[in-house]
Design a protein that fits this description.
The protein contains three helices and five strands. The chain is α+β, with helices and mostly antiparallel strands. The protein starts with a helix and ends in a 39-residue tail after the last strand.
């Protein structure tokens, strides 16, 4: 029994260490607050800490803050947006300070931990859209991944695991975006 609890504790520690944000912020995050829950009634959840991710749609700099409009996406185990083409909606991130719009530009994936501050209704095309708003504590901008290479190539390849198989036989492994 002790061995099982030690293994579970080790696995939890490894998963916690995979998060791109600081441990202090991750401790404050309420994992039960999904985008859909907050979107329905953000006024009752003001001050709660959430962890959301998505793709930047627009970056606007003001005198003392930067506003990011983000298309929400579910997060994977690394806390990276899992499927950027699937979204439950959009949200606004308010960051105190300057973020370079050339770096934080449209199409970049981010993960944000922040406090819910309410809801803003702004025009989106021909409608008025209610955006949940969070004040960022930490933002993680993800590296761009070359679309020619799968993020996890070892799940599907190589098709042959015979006695003469070698990872060096497949040259795309050496260009894999994660460094060993």
């Amino acid at each position: 029994m002790r061995r099982l609890s030690a293994v579970l504790l080790a696995v939890a520690g490894i998963l916690w260490a995979c998060a791109p944000l600081s441990k202090e912020v991750m401790r404050q995050v309420d994992e039960n607050l999904t985008y859909q829950t907050v979107y329905k009634n953000p006024q009752d959840l003001v001050g709660k800490m959430v962890l959301w991710g998505g793709v930047i749609v627009k970056t606007t700099n003001r005198q003392d803050e930067t506003i990011l409009e983000v298309r929400q996406a579910e997060l994977d185990i690394e806390k990276r947006p899992k499927n950027p083409d699937s979204s439950a909606g959009r949200f606004i991130v308010r960051h105190a300070g300057f973020l370079d719009p050339v770096i934080y530009k449209e199409g970049r994936e981010i993960t944000v931990a922040g406090e819910i501050t309410g809801k803003e209704t702004l025009p989106l095309g021909g409608i008025q859209y209610g955006y949940p708003v969070i004040r960022a504590k930490e933002i993680h901008l993800w590296e761009k991944i070359d679309p020619r290479y799968d993020r996890y190539p070892y799940w599907d390849y190589p098709p042959y695991w015979g006695p003469y198989w070698s990872p060096y036989a497949y040259p795309y492994w050496r260009r894999w975006p994660y460094r060993w």
